[in-house]
Write a structure and sequence with these properties.
Blueprint (H helix, E strand, L loop, with lengths): L5 E6 L2 H15 L11 E6 L4 E5 L2 E6 L4 E3 L1 H6 L6 E4 L4 H5 L4 E2 L3 E4 L8 E6 L5 E7 L3 H6 L4 E8 L10
Parallel strand pairs: 6-9
Antiparallel strand pairs: 1-2, 2-3, 3-4, 4-5, 6-8, 7-11, 9-10, 10-11
């Protein structure tokens, strides 16, 4: 991701909030209710994603195809859906933005869909390390023996993580 420059920031209307929450619910189901707030703002930036602020914190993003929590959103408001769990050996690579390879995966939740967003979590504490895009459905990932399974989209230390508001 290139350097994110904020162009505009404004509150969105109640109808837009309802639409946004419906799109978020398509990805994470009933856990979307955890992200509801009175005031949601949108950041217009030069990035490929729209960033939404809930109580002045960047808690979710919209890339046009899907709405999903940012890494800070997943850390602040944990949710059990769309989870790819990696072992301890994969953590340093995932945190630095590497794609997730099959040997490092220990578990995949059943709701993971191909080309859909996922949270990549570590095995012991289930803390999110990155947000990625699954390249296969959950069952296909578990059935595979090798290869790239998730493409990294957002990780600790990237431009979205370091965004100053």
């Amino acid at each position: 991701m290139k350097k994110i420059v904020i162009k505009k920031r404004h509150s969105i209307r109640k109808g837009q909030v309802a639409d946004l929450m419906d799109r978020l619910a398509l990805q994470i189901g009933p856990s979307a209710d955890l992200f509801k707030a009175d005031m949601i703002e949108i950041l217009e930036t030069n990035a490929d994603v729209a960033i939404y602020l809930v109580n002045k914190k960047p808690l979710f993003m919209d890339n046009g195809d899907w709405v999903f929590p940012t890494l800070k959103g997943a850390l602040q408001i944990p949710f059990p859906e769309r989870m790819v769990t990696v072992d301890a050996g994969a953590i340093p690579y995932v945190v630095n933005g590497a794609d997730v390879m099959r040997p490092g995966i220990v578990a995949v939740s059943g709701d993971v869909k191909a080309n859909g967003p996922v949270q990549i979590v570590e095995e012991r504490h289930k803390k999110p390390l990155a947000i990625g895009v699954a390249l296969m459905d959950g069952q296909a990932i578990l059935a595979s023996a090798q290869g790239k399974m998730c493409k990294s989209f957002h990780h600790v230390g990237d431009e979205l993580w370091n965004l100053e508001i």
